[in-house]
Amino acid sequence: WHFGNGFDSSFKRLGATLVSATAAIYKEAVANLLPTPTKSHYTFNLRDFARVIQGVMLVPASNLPEQNKVVRLWVHEVYRVFYDRLVDDNDREFLFGAIKQVTQEQFKLNTNTLFDHLISDKAQGLQDDDMRSLFFGDYMEPGAEPRIYDEVQDLTLLRETMEEYLSEYNQLSKTPMSLVMFRFAIEHVSRLARILKQPNGHALLVGIGGSGRQSVTKLAAAMSEYTMFRIELTKNYSYSDWR
Known about the structure:
Layout: H1 14-32, H2 46-56, H3 67-81, H4 89-107, H5 111-114, E1 135-137, E2 150-152, H6 155-172, H7 183-197, H8 213-223, H9 239-242
Antiparallel strand pairs: 1-2
Protein backbone atom coordinates (compact mmCIF):
# COMPACT_ATOMS: atom_id res chain seq x y z
CA TRP A 1 0.00 0.00 0.00
CA HIS A 2 2.97 2.35 0.57
CA PHE A 3 3.70 2.58 -3.17
CA GLY A 4 0.08 3.49 -3.79
CA ASN A 5 0.49 6.84 -2.03
CA GLY A 6 1.93 9.42 -4.39
CA PHE A 7 4.10 7.01 -6.37
CA ASP A 8 3.92 6.39 -10.09
CA SER A 9 1.77 3.38 -11.00
CA SER A 10 4.89 1.51 -12.16
CA PHE A 11 6.06 1.32 -8.53
CA LYS A 12 3.07 -0.71 -7.30
CA ARG A 13 4.48 -4.09 -8.32
CA LEU A 14 7.70 -3.25 -6.46
CA GLY A 15 5.99 -3.74 -3.11
CA ALA A 16 5.57 -7.50 -3.53
CA THR A 17 9.10 -7.82 -4.93
CA LEU A 18 10.59 -5.96 -1.94
CA VAL A 19 8.81 -8.31 0.46
CA SER A 20 9.98 -11.39 -1.46
CA ALA A 21 13.57 -10.10 -1.61
CA THR A 22 13.61 -9.30 2.11
CA ALA A 23 12.20 -12.74 2.89
CA ALA A 24 14.97 -14.33 0.82
CA ILE A 25 17.69 -12.43 2.71
CA TYR A 26 16.03 -13.23 6.04
CA LYS A 27 15.93 -16.96 5.23
CA GLU A 28 19.59 -16.93 4.16
CA ALA A 29 20.57 -15.18 7.41
CA VAL A 30 18.58 -17.57 9.61
CA ALA A 31 19.94 -20.64 7.82
CA ASN A 32 23.59 -19.67 7.52
CA LEU A 33 24.43 -16.97 10.08
CA LEU A 34 23.95 -19.11 13.16
CA PRO A 35 24.67 -18.08 16.76
CA THR A 36 27.82 -19.46 18.38
CA PRO A 37 29.52 -18.70 21.71
CA THR A 38 31.44 -15.87 19.99
CA LYS A 39 28.44 -14.76 17.92
CA SER A 40 25.64 -15.10 20.44
CA HIS A 41 23.89 -12.03 19.00
CA TYR A 42 23.34 -13.74 15.63
CA THR A 43 19.65 -14.17 16.40
CA PHE A 44 17.46 -12.93 13.56
CA ASN A 45 13.67 -12.76 13.78
CA LEU A 46 10.72 -11.17 12.00
CA ARG A 47 11.40 -7.83 13.69
CA ASP A 48 14.50 -7.59 11.51
CA PHE A 49 12.38 -8.35 8.46
CA ALA A 50 9.99 -5.56 9.47
CA ARG A 51 12.80 -3.06 10.08
CA VAL A 52 14.00 -3.41 6.48
CA ILE A 53 10.52 -2.65 5.14
CA GLN A 54 10.13 0.15 7.69
CA GLY A 55 13.39 1.68 6.51
CA VAL A 56 12.29 1.62 2.87
CA MET A 57 9.14 3.49 3.87
CA LEU A 58 11.14 6.37 5.38
CA VAL A 59 11.73 7.99 1.98
CA PRO A 60 8.73 9.91 0.59
CA ALA A 61 7.49 9.52 -2.97
CA SER A 62 8.86 12.96 -3.93
CA ASN A 63 12.40 11.70 -3.34
CA LEU A 64 12.06 8.37 -5.16
CA PRO A 65 11.75 9.33 -8.82
CA GLU A 66 13.01 6.01 -10.22
CA GLN A 67 12.91 2.36 -9.24
CA ASN A 68 16.67 1.82 -9.14
CA LYS A 69 16.86 4.22 -6.21
CA VAL A 70 14.28 2.14 -4.36
CA VAL A 71 16.48 -0.92 -4.80
CA ARG A 72 19.55 0.99 -3.57
CA LEU A 73 17.49 2.05 -0.55
CA TRP A 74 16.46 -1.56 0.06
CA VAL A 75 20.09 -2.74 -0.09
CA HIS A 76 21.07 0.02 2.35
CA GLU A 77 18.40 -1.06 4.82
CA VAL A 78 19.42 -4.72 4.53
CA TYR A 79 22.99 -3.68 5.30
CA ARG A 80 21.93 -1.65 8.33
CA VAL A 81 19.64 -4.35 9.77
CA PHE A 82 21.60 -7.54 8.98
CA TYR A 83 25.13 -6.63 7.93
CA ASP A 84 25.89 -4.26 10.82
CA ARG A 85 25.40 -7.13 13.25
CA LEU A 86 28.12 -9.27 11.70
CA VAL A 87 31.56 -9.55 13.30
CA ASP A 88 33.33 -11.93 10.91
CA ASP A 89 34.70 -11.09 7.46
CA ASN A 90 33.52 -14.41 6.04
CA ASP A 91 30.00 -13.70 7.26
CA ARG A 92 30.11 -10.24 5.69
CA GLU A 93 31.25 -11.68 2.38
CA PHE A 94 28.50 -14.27 2.54
CA LEU A 95 25.79 -11.64 3.08
CA PHE A 96 27.27 -9.42 0.36
CA GLY A 97 27.06 -12.35 -2.05
CA ALA A 98 23.49 -13.13 -0.97
CA ILE A 99 22.44 -9.52 -1.57
CA LYS A 100 23.95 -9.55 -5.05
CA GLN A 101 22.19 -12.80 -5.89
CA VAL A 102 18.80 -11.71 -4.54
CA THR A 103 19.07 -8.34 -6.31
CA GLN A 104 19.67 -10.16 -9.60
CA GLU A 105 16.94 -12.76 -9.06
CA GLN A 106 14.20 -10.61 -7.57
CA PHE A 107 14.75 -7.18 -9.12
CA LYS A 108 16.47 -8.38 -12.33
CA LEU A 109 19.24 -5.83 -11.73
CA ASN A 110 23.00 -6.26 -11.88
CA THR A 111 24.68 -4.74 -8.82
CA ASN A 112 27.63 -3.52 -10.90
CA THR A 113 25.19 -1.37 -12.87
CA LEU A 114 23.06 -0.41 -9.88
CA PHE A 115 26.06 0.75 -7.83
CA ASP A 116 28.34 1.85 -10.65
CA HIS A 117 28.97 5.19 -8.90
CA LEU A 118 30.38 3.36 -5.85
CA ILE A 119 32.83 1.03 -7.61
CA SER A 120 36.44 1.95 -6.87
CA ASP A 121 38.00 -0.56 -9.30
CA LYS A 122 36.00 -1.02 -12.50
CA ALA A 123 38.09 -4.06 -13.46
CA GLN A 124 37.12 -5.97 -10.32
CA GLY A 125 33.53 -4.77 -10.22
CA LEU A 126 31.53 -4.09 -7.07
CA GLN A 127 33.26 -5.23 -3.89
CA ASP A 128 31.94 -5.42 -0.35
CA ASP A 129 34.18 -2.52 0.73
CA ASP A 130 32.61 -0.29 -1.94
CA MET A 131 29.28 -0.56 -0.15
CA ARG A 132 30.67 1.53 2.69
CA SER A 133 30.00 4.52 0.43
CA LEU A 134 26.25 3.81 0.36
CA PHE A 135 24.58 6.34 2.67
CA PHE A 136 20.98 7.31 3.36
CA GLY A 137 20.11 9.83 6.07
CA ASP A 138 17.97 12.78 7.08
CA TYR A 139 20.82 14.97 8.28
CA MET A 140 22.15 16.63 5.11
CA GLU A 141 20.09 19.80 5.56
CA PRO A 142 20.55 21.02 9.15
CA GLY A 143 17.43 22.69 10.48
CA ALA A 144 15.22 21.45 7.64
CA GLU A 145 11.56 20.79 8.40
CA PRO A 146 10.55 18.14 7.64
CA ARG A 147 13.79 16.17 7.72
CA ILE A 148 13.84 14.01 4.59
CA TYR A 149 15.55 10.63 4.68
CA ASP A 150 17.37 10.48 1.36
CA GLU A 151 20.43 9.14 -0.46
CA VAL A 152 23.77 10.84 0.14
CA GLN A 153 26.12 10.70 -2.84
CA ASP A 154 28.49 13.60 -2.13
CA LEU A 155 30.80 12.16 0.53
CA THR A 156 32.84 15.38 0.76
CA LEU A 157 29.69 17.34 1.56
CA LEU A 158 28.72 14.61 4.03
CA ARG A 159 31.97 15.07 5.95
CA GLU A 160 31.57 18.86 5.93
CA THR A 161 28.00 18.55 7.22
CA MET A 162 29.08 16.22 10.05
CA GLU A 163 31.85 18.66 11.01
CA GLU A 164 29.29 21.48 11.03
CA TYR A 165 27.08 19.50 13.41
CA LEU A 166 30.11 18.78 15.62
CA SER A 167 31.09 22.45 15.67
CA GLU A 168 27.56 23.45 16.66
CA TYR A 169 27.51 20.79 19.40
CA ASN A 170 30.81 22.02 20.82
CA GLN A 171 29.56 25.61 20.92
CA LEU A 172 26.51 24.63 22.98
CA SER A 173 27.96 21.88 25.16
CA LYS A 174 29.75 22.30 28.49
CA THR A 175 31.90 19.30 27.53
CA PRO A 176 32.97 19.82 23.90
CA MET A 177 34.30 16.83 21.98
CA SER A 178 37.55 16.82 20.06
CA LEU A 179 36.59 14.46 17.27
CA VAL A 180 38.17 13.81 13.90
CA MET A 181 35.39 12.99 11.44
CA PHE A 182 37.19 10.22 9.59
CA ARG A 183 35.36 7.63 7.51
CA PHE A 184 34.52 5.08 10.22
CA ALA A 185 33.26 7.79 12.59
CA ILE A 186 30.98 9.20 9.88
CA GLU A 187 29.63 5.71 9.14
CA HIS A 188 28.80 5.07 12.80
CA VAL A 189 27.15 8.47 13.28
CA SER A 190 25.04 7.87 10.17
CA ARG A 191 23.97 4.44 11.47
CA LEU A 192 22.94 5.88 14.82
CA ALA A 193 21.06 8.77 13.21
CA ARG A 194 19.05 6.23 11.20
CA ILE A 195 18.26 4.19 14.31
CA LEU A 196 17.09 7.29 16.17
CA LYS A 197 14.78 8.17 13.29
CA GLN A 198 12.95 4.85 13.39
CA PRO A 199 10.08 4.19 15.83
CA ASN A 200 11.36 2.18 18.81
CA GLY A 201 14.87 2.33 17.36
CA HIS A 202 17.54 0.85 19.59
CA ALA A 203 21.15 -0.32 19.36
CA LEU A 204 23.86 -1.99 21.39
CA LEU A 205 27.30 -0.48 20.77
CA VAL A 206 30.10 -2.93 21.44
CA GLY A 207 33.75 -1.89 21.63
CA ILE A 208 36.75 -1.35 23.87
CA GLY A 209 36.89 1.65 26.17
CA GLY A 210 37.94 4.83 24.41
CA SER A 211 36.77 3.69 20.97
CA GLY A 212 34.33 6.58 20.69
CA ARG A 213 30.96 4.94 21.36
CA GLN A 214 29.79 7.72 23.68
CA SER A 215 31.06 10.47 21.41
CA VAL A 216 29.32 9.26 18.25
CA THR A 217 26.13 8.68 20.24
CA LYS A 218 26.21 12.23 21.60
CA LEU A 219 26.76 13.65 18.13
CA ALA A 220 24.01 11.53 16.54
CA ALA A 221 21.57 12.54 19.29
CA ALA A 222 22.43 16.22 18.80
CA MET A 223 21.97 15.88 15.03
CA SER A 224 18.51 14.40 15.65
CA GLU A 225 17.75 17.23 18.10
CA TYR A 226 17.31 14.81 20.98
CA THR A 227 18.29 15.27 24.60
CA MET A 228 20.58 12.50 25.76
CA PHE A 229 19.96 10.85 29.12
CA ARG A 230 22.73 8.82 30.68
CA ILE A 231 22.46 6.45 33.64
CA GLU A 232 25.25 7.00 36.16
CA LEU A 233 25.84 3.99 38.38
CA THR A 234 26.73 4.58 42.01
CA LYS A 235 27.26 2.32 45.01
CA ASN A 236 23.70 2.96 46.18
CA TYR A 237 22.10 2.63 42.72
CA SER A 238 18.85 0.68 43.05
CA TYR A 239 15.88 -0.57 41.07
CA SER A 240 13.89 2.57 41.91
CA ASP A 241 16.71 4.70 40.43
CA TRP A 242 16.60 2.65 37.26
CA ARG A 243 12.83 3.17 36.96
